[in-house]
Amino acid sequence: MAGNKKNFEWCVIGAGPAGIAAVGKLLDHDIPAQKILWIDDKFKVGDLGTKWHDVSSNTTVQLFLDFLNECRAFKFDERIQHFQIEKIDPHLTCKLMNIIKPLQWISNHLLQHVATYQGVVSCLAVNNRCWEITVDRHKFKVANVILAVGAEPDRIRHKNVKEIILEDALNYSHLKQCCENVNSVVVFGSSHSAIIIIRYLVELGVSRIVNFYQSPLKFALPMGDWTLFDNTGLKGTTADWARENILGKMPENLYRYQATKRNIRTYLGDCDRVIYAVGFHPRVVKVAGMAELQHNVYNGIIAPGLFGVGIAFPEQTTDPYGNREESVGLWKFMMHINTVLPIWLRYGL
Ligand SMILES: Cc1cc2nc3c(=O)[nH]c(=O)nc-3n(C[C@H](O)[C@H](O)[C@H](O)COP(=O)(O)OP(=O)(O)OC[C@H]3O[C@@H](n4cnc5c(N)ncnc54)[C@H](O)[C@@H]3O)c2cc1C
Q: Which fold has domain 155-276?
């Protein structure tokens, strides 16, 4: 590619919910479709589409519907097809599989308009006031890049106990297979994911379930126009189950211990399997000259013309009592892009 001629004005890397929202909002801001390049290794609605479909949502169906209808460019109102999610009470939560099909419909619709490349980006570098993106053997020159690359589950790794990865643990039938001929399973964590897994293990009748937690259970509490522990508290059916079974009548096969070194030493060793539901870290994308990517937690800026969104680069919010949380969820990504995109449009190289 010659000189510093840019191939595209914008490149969105990642086609999960955050990438879908970013492409939709760029189009809504009148960026011509042919000036947008969209890169993903699968275009299957990200980790949501490929890993978390069996998980009970912690947000209401209404927020998913709001996401689907937010961007004009999604053209969701022009669909002929109807989706199961539209038949569910909007005040309820649902299995995440219900949001995946409509998101895949939107993704397919956007794919017909913007330029796309299926592959894994290996490196970004600034050259002649352009971002040069290396993917497979190609190089694209782009004025601005939005990273929506998602996050990987954190793992602690205890050498002597075999791990069930989070993806399998959050899928009931996979977990069932993983627990065949297994007597005891340890779960680290006490968040939404951890409680779903503990519930599955109780229902599967695993003889001994050990849960190591760091802090007491947290529940989201609606406070009118804001929600206490909105991003970290338990919600929906998972919260109901935790109240009845952990704070109420503890299942006979469930043992909970604070995650102190001593407790872990005492109770982990004789367990057959371990599951870590202890958080996520951003997927790594190599950027020349930056050892580690750090985003501004209020506006998503990483560098001039380089921005981050989604679970990898979440917005930090502060509630009226000063509690700070990372704001994660489809609707939150969309609202954050709404706020920051006008800044990103003016913060190029
Ligand atoms: C268990 C669980 C339950 C959740 N429940 C809810 C819920 O109820 N409601 C809600 O709103 N949110 C929920 N979330 C949060 C959030 O919506 C999802 O985590 C969502 O998948 C994050 O979207 P994303 O687009 O940021 O990342 P992802 O969905 O992970 O998408 C990132 C995409 O980028 C691609 N990619 C990464 N690196 C590269 C590269 N170098 N080159 C090319 N492509 C690349 C990946 O392959 C992937 O396709 C949940 C999350 C988890 C983990």
A: FAD/NAD(P)-binding domain (3.50.50)
pTM: 0.95
Q: Is the pLDDT of residue 1 over 60?
A: no
Q: Is 59 in the pocket of ligand 1 (CB under 6 A)?
A: yes
CATH, domain 8-152+280-344, list 3.90.1700.10, 3.30.420.40, 3.50.50.60, 3.90.550.10: 3.50.50.60
2 pLDDT more than 60: no
**% of the chain exceeding 90 in pLDDT:** 93
Q: What angle do CA 200, 205, 211 make, to 5 degrees?
A: 60
How far is 189 from 215, CA to CA, in rounded Å? 9
pLDDT of residue 308: 98
In short, whether 154's Cβ falls inside 6 Å of ligand 1 is no
16 CA → ligand 1 middle, Å: 5
CB atoms closer than 10 angstroms to residue 36:
24
Q: Which of 11, 39, 48 to mutate to test the pocket of ligand 1 (most atoms within 8 A of CB)?
A: 48
